[in-house]
Amino acid sequence: MVENSSNRSAGKVKWRRFAIAAVPAIAVAGTLVGLTAKGALASSISVSGQEYTVSASQLSGQGFEQFGNEVTQSNGTVVPVMESAMTSADLYNLCQQVTVGPLTLTLTAGSSTDPAVAQNLIVDAASQTGSSAVFTNISIGNDASTLTEDPGVVGAAGSFGQQADSVVINNLVQQTWLTTAGTFTLPDLNLGFGGSCTGS
């Protein structure tokens, strides 16, 4: 059957279709940025005009680097961020929330025993909090262009950076502009409108 255009509601979004379409789009973006981290593609990503919240009861990462950077919105606005990169990361009780029009889109994945797993994870965040953090073999104050961990990204020459063999952050909450990964495995994926991240 072909739907008559006169029966369609003008100006309304099919939210379920949007949510279904969002997952493969995120996967494609992750693959492209994974190539960017390896130097195969030029980095020219424009971010949206809003932050979103990412939380996890625990993040356990290997090959950690962090330095100051900036992202650019499509309108040309430059936003300062803390860029964190990890070769691999386990995120327990992962929850992500973003406002879509009048609604809140919530993604949850993983549990306290079966985490979401990211490879070549890169996060551009405006803020980050946690109840505790443990860094193993950390080096603070490096020139950001000389970082030597494995994620494949470095900062600007002469800027402040730090790196560690591994990091564990408990009760992580990030206000984030952009998250990318070469691969992102999401067990028990649940994507829908409403809900909260208080269970993380």
Describe the structure.
The protein is mainly β and 200 residues long. It has one domain (13-193). It contains 1 helix and 11 strands, in the order αβββββββββββ. The protein has one helix spanning 15-37; strands at residues 46-47, 52-73, 78-92, 94-100, 103-109, 116-129, 132-136, 139-143, 160-180, 183-185, 190-193. Strands 1, 2, 3, 4, 5, 6, 7, 8, 9, 10 and 11 form an 11-stranded mixed beta sheet that branches. β2 and β3 (78-92) form a beta hairpin. The longest helix has 23 residues, at 15-37. It is globular and about 45 Å long. The chain starts with 14 loop residues before the first helix and ends in a 7-residue tail after the last strand. 32% of the residues are buried. Residues 1-11 and 18-44 have low confidence and may be disordered.
Provide a short characterization of the protein structure:
This protein is mostly beta strands and 200 residues long. Helices cover 12% and strands 52% of the residues. Strands 1, 2, 3, 4, 5, 6, 7, 8, 9, 10 and 11 form an 11-stranded mixed sheet that branches.
